[in-house]
Write a structure and sequence with these properties.
By secondary structure, the protein is an alpha/beta fold. The chain folds into 2 domains: 4-210, Alpha-Beta Complex (DHBP synthase); 246-350, Rossmann fold (3-Layer(aba) Sandwich), CATH 3.40.50.11030. It has helices at residues 15-26, 48-58, 76-79, 85-94, 111-114, 128-137, 157-164, 203-210, 253-269, 300-315, 332-343; strands at 4-7, 31-34, 39-44, 67-69, 99-104, 119-123, 141-142, 170-173, 184-187, 194-197, 246-250, 274-278, 290-293, 321-325, 348-350. The chain has a 10-stranded mixed sheet, sandwiched between helices. Strands 13-12-14-11-15 form a 5-stranded parallel sheet, sandwiched between helices. The longest helix has 17 residues, at 253-269. The chain is globular, with a radius of gyration of 20 Å.
Length: 352
């Protein structure tokens, strides 16, 4: 298959380009497009065979649910039953935006889209290209991240092209995304709302609306994996991982720097190449290895925006190992660490 790569204005998407992409969606084909979080790989959410194409193109486990993207709040009633008051309150506050809600699904939503579950994950994106593509296609669009399953999520079209060229019909290149981390996921299909994946919409922000939110994330936080199907993307399987094994180093800043320097020296003596993931504040403390800062610790949004890009840059260098500082701050820092823990396969080393 030849993959068409088309540049598009991310603010005022050209109608003819969107129409071409919408035709692919209508015909059951796959189109990658920018959202405010990461690039998504879209297909008609209500066609089982279209959703199956997503799993095949990504190499994604079939029990890992897809998120259905809508372009108006009223679409909740097309695919969810019931639509609880909590969902409408959250929609009024945070949609369009980086929040995904899990609700009980209607029969029209195939289990090929929901990973075999009776619930459906729903999001109303704010990116103009994503919203116009949904409207022009006349479809609700199932769209996980547009990358090979398990790899760092794509924050620009080049990442998508490297992973999926020849596997999908079209890529809409709208430049770099704004946020760089996937949406927050909250489960509203249970008695007590629960955050299943942290993001830019924090648990504290959700509590301001709902008052009562469970912040526990059994897979993402503990690394526990069992035979049960994950209820939301990013919960059970390894995600966001660079090619080289990555280890997070935990402790006081000076101890972390000292430990990483010692590890780097040992790898150098063995003739091995390593990557070091750090902050602007500590980048000058390292000598050996490929040193990359993901931003200042005073700017969480910058760190979130840069994380996946830097992990992919490491992949281009044929490294033997990657060592990273921890970024476990409050707020968005919880989402950053969630992704870093998954990328590292929960490998954590305590600094000496």
């Amino acid at each position: 298959m030849e993959t068409i790569l088309e540049t598009i204005d991310p603010v005022n998407p050209e109608a003819d380009v969107i129409r071409r992409a919408a035709e692919f969606i209508k015909n059951g084909d796959l189109v990658a497009f920018p959202t405010e979080t990461v690039y998504g790989l879209g297909a008609d959410a209500l066609r089982p065979e279209a959703s199956q194409k997503i799993y095949a193109a990504k190499g994604r486990p079939s029990d890992n649910p897809l998120i259905v993207h809508i372009a108006q709040i009223e679409d909740l009633y097309r695919i969810a039953d019931p639509v609880p008051e909590e969902a409408l309150l959250l929609a009024k506050r945070f949609w369009p935006g980086p929040l995904t809600m899990i609700l009980h699904k209607k029969e029209c939503v195939p289990k090929q889209t929901t990973g075999g579950l009776n619930t459906v994950a729903i999001r109303f994106p704010s990116h103009p290209v994503a919203r116009e593509l949904i409207r022009q296609s006349g479809c609700l669009i199932a769209a996980p991240s547009a990358n090979t399953s398990g790899r760092p999520s794509p924050t620009c079209a080049e990442h998508v092209h490297r992973d999926l060229d020849g596997r999908i019909a079209m890529i809409l290149d709208g430049g770099e995304v704004g946020l760089g981390l996937e949406s927050t996921i909250i489960d509203l299909s249970v008695d007590r709302p629960a955050v299943l994946r942290p993001g830019f919409i924090t648990a504290e922000m959700l509590k301001e609306v709902l008052g009562d939110v469970d912040g526990e994330k059994p897979f993402a936080e503990t690394g526990h994996e069992d035979s049960h199907a994950p209820k939301a993307p990013g919960m059970k399987y390894t995600h966001y991982a660079p090619k080289a094994p990555m280890t997070l180093v935990r402790g006081e800043q000076e101890a972390v720097i000292r430990t990483i320097r010692q590890l780097a020296a040992k790898h150098r003596e063995k003739g091995e190449r390593i990557g070091i993931l750090c902050s602007d504040e500590t980048a000058g403390s390292y000598e050996d290895g490929l040193i990359k800062s993901i931003g200042s610790r005073a700017a969480e949004a910058e760190i979130a925006h840069n994380l996946y890009r830097v992990l992919r840059e490491f992949d281009e260098q044929d490294l033997d190992a990657i060592y990273s500082e921890m970024f476990d701050t409050a707020g968005v820092g919880q989402a950053i660490m969630n992704r870093m823990l998954k990328a590292a396969g929960h490998r954590i080393l305590d600094a000496d």
